Amino acid sequence: MADTNHTIAYIGLGSNLGDRAGNLLLAVRALMEASFVVDKLSAIYETEPLEIESDVNFLNMVAEIHVTNVSASQMMARLLRIEYLLGRRDKTVKKPRTADLDILFFGDQQMTSEFITLPHPRLHLRKFVLVPLNEIAPNFVHPILQTEIGELLAKVDDTSEVKRWNPNFDIAHELAANS
To answer: Quick check: pTM over 0.85?
Structure first.
């Protein structure tokens, strides 16, 4: 799946501050402007905040990215820049955020540094990652757990709500509440 020049990476995207959907769309656009080829995008899912101090639900999705001549560390640096450009200043864990971009997988690469851990160390515990990832890559095999994404999702203990986001439902609900 990965060689020195070409890699398929999976990126988790999330937002729960401001225009959540707009932030995700701007993040996808920024990925393309950062010279990444976006091969697939999952649907957008509305998810309960997990391990975050917030009452506002997240919107989450996963992107499959075709990466050429870029290392995982270089990709992470570009993702941090995108987060910054989209208004994320506080990198404190457990805080709401305008944009959160995480490398879930970088091919089958495994690495740990103070900058990045691959694969993402908690992705197999989180439905908000597994549901959209399963939509676009159900048969991808986790390189450490040696288990397909679909099987990880079927076995996850996370009971948080993850539902496909429907912006029309939100608008209709808001209009009904105001009439």
So the answer is: yes
The Cα 168–Cα 92 span in angstroms is: 33
Q: What is the pLDDT of residues 19-56, one digit of tens each?
A: 999 999 999 999 999 999 999 999 999 998 877 777 88
CA gap 167, 162 in Å, rounded: 15
With tokens 């990925």, the residue in question is: 31
Distances (CA, A) of 49 to 95, 136, 146, 163: 10, 23, 28, 13
| Structural domain harbouring 103 | 6-178
Nearest partner of 96 among 14, 11, 12, 13, judged by Cα: 14
Domain contains 147 = yes
Could you tell me whether strands 45-47 and 58-68 are parallel, antiparallel, or unpaired per DSSP bridges? antiparallel
CA distance 141 to 146: 6
**Residue 57 token pair:** 């639900």
In which element (H, E) is residue 128 found?
helix 127-136
Domain of residue 130, CATH code: 3.30.70.560
User: How many structural domains comprise the chain?
Assistant: 1
Q: Would residue 101 count as lying in a domain?
A: yes
